[in-house]
Design brief:
By secondary structure, this protein is mainly beta. It is built from 2 helices and 35 strands.
Length: 504
């Protein structure tokens, strides 16, 4: 009896299994393909089969990729591409004066003594232009100027001319300085030092006399190196003279004069002058060197400005390999104003550290608040008074490679899952193969998925990110899916790989 029951049970089990097989055989084939895999099913073995489509790090500079297990997911970190651009360049003219009298310059002289202009190593940086009057017995004048009109005589604003000056004498009869010159008449307004060790503003109408309009009193200047700035408004005939000590950066004195006495001069160029005034009991000589001439329009030649730098970021200014100045941004324009002077008063001269108003190998570097280098300008010529701007570059960057290790093509699309962003005017994401790219996902959303692209056999496709930022500090977190199928139109076996993209 027990044996019959066992036989009957086995027959029932066999009947049930046969029924299951029959039902499965009647199911449509397409319903089996509707399953969604993170990666294809493994074979019956001790080692899983590698997915045919895998993510790869493209090695793109500024892009960091973390791949998930089996390389079927990815976290991508994209550093924004920044640049530093020259925003405003108020420089009208400049010369390092390293070769003495520059090309295009002319000279004039009058009175007693022997005038001359030549190259000298007595300089602030490199070589300089030296002017001299030797063996003068009475009034004497020696001038040099750029013989080309560079000033707008109707301009209602200030031109600024700066130069390092090293007078060989500051006696009561000695005058040395910067000139705003009428090139056709050689009449000029001047700012200078001398006149018994003082800062003065002068006017020259007929050679060789120099008429002092205003001066400091008992300033007590000695022989040494100075930085002189002469500011002039062509419309109002206002003149400012500023004198700095370049071994400390301190302002020594400033004076102001407005000329209202005819003849009013209309200078169209700039230059230098040295003079000896009055009767001299014994032959006298004067020697002065001038270096690093800069002419600007409505700008301070002792400042370099970098705009648009986020608070907490660092701006560093170099000349060659020498760090001249480093400033932490407070969110307002970053002002660099210590690049032209030597901070160590014991510095041996001539200056070997290349501080100057003219930086021949100038370089600006910007770092974020984590110390990461974000942008570099130079190495190139940078001149005091120039204004720079940090900006985010529009970028088109490969952020993730997609490898096909199989012997057949697959068909892929990208879909947008979610996102958050600020500071971008547009973001587009493309799926590309070696020969073409899809239509994009766009943020703000205009399209939530790309068109389909072939992922070719034994080939490398990729995801491309294209963005344009409207503000510094822009950031975005984007979550997308790579969906691929063994048949076009996403009609075959379907797999979905998640991708996180972080931009900032």
């Amino acid at each position: 009896m027990r044996k019959d029951n066992g036989v009957r049970l086995m027959k029932n089990v066999f009947s049930i299994l046969l029924l299951i097989i029959l039902v499965l055989s009647l199911l449509p084939i397409s319903s089996l393909h509707a399953s969604i895999y993170v990666y294809p099913p493994t074979q019956v073995s001790t080692k899983p089969t590698e997915p045919p489509i895998i993510f790869q790090d493209p090695g793109t500079p500024g892009v960091s990729v973390n791949l998930g297990p089996n390389r079927t997911s990815a976290n991508v970190y994209v550093s924004l591409s920044y640049s530093i651009q020259l925003q405003t360049n108020p420089v009208v003219y400049y010369s390092t004066l390293d070769q003495g009298l520059p090309p295009g310059w002319s000279t004039f002289s009058g009175g007693s003594g022997t005038p001359g202009w030549y190259e000298t190593p007595n300089a602030w940086v490199g070589n300089a232009l030296a002017g001299a009057i030797t063996l003068a017995t009475r009034n004497a004048l020696n001038g040099a100027y750029y013989n080309n009109p560079i000033l707008n005589t109707n301009y209602n604003g200030f031109y600024n001319v700066s130069a390092y000056i090293w007078p060989g004498g500051l006696s009561p009869s000695a005058f040395n300085g910067i000139a705003y010159i009428e090139s056709n008449t050689r009449r000029f307004y001047g700012c200078g030092i001398g006149y018994n060790g003082n800062l003065f503003i002068s006017k020259r109408i007929s050679q060789p006399s120099v008429n002092v309009l205003i001066s400091t009193q008992n300033l007590g200047l000695g022989v040494g190196r100075y930085l002189l700035i002469c500011s002039f408004n062509p419309s109002t005939k206002e003149i400012w003279a500023y004198l700095y000590r370049p071994l400390s950066g301190s302002l020594i004195a400033s004076i102001y004069y407005k000329d209202t006495n005819p003849p009013l001069l209309n200078p169209d160029s700039v230059g230098f002058f040295i003079a000896i005034s009055g009767s001299i009991h014994s032959p006298s000589s004067i020697y002065t060197s001038f270096d690093e001439l800069v002419v600007t329009q409505n700008a301070d030649p002792l400042r370099i400005i970098v705009n648009n730098v986020p608070s907490g970021w660092n701006v560093s200014l170099y000349n060659g390999s020498t760090l001249l100045e480093s400033v932490i941004s407070t969110g307002s324009p970053v002002v660099l104003n210590r690049f032209w002077n030597v901070t160590n008063t014991a510095e041996e001269l001539p200056n070997t550290k290349n501080q100057s108003t003219i930086l021949k190998q100038g370089r600006i570097e910007v770092y974020d608040n984590n110390g990461n280098l974000k942008a570099v300008y130079g190495s190139t010529l940078i001149i005091g008074n120039q204004v720079f701007e940090l900006s985010v570059q529009a970028s088109n960057v490969r952020i993730l490679n997609i490898g096909n290790t199989d012997s057949k093509n697959y068909y892929g699309i990208l879909t947008l899952h979610s996102y958050s962003s600020s500071g971008f005017s547009s973001i587009s994401i493309y799926l590309c193969n070696p020969s073409t790219c899809s239509t994009p996902i766009t943020i703000p959303p205009g399209s939530m998925q790309t068109s389909e692209v072939v992922l070719p056999l034994q080939g490398v496709s990729y995801i491309m990110l294209d963005y344009s930022a409207s503000s510094i500090g822009a950031s975005a977190d984007i979550y997308i899916h790579l969906r691929y199928s063994s048949l076009s139109g996403q009609n075959g076996v379907l797999a979905i790989y998640p991708v996180e993209i972080h931009v900032g």
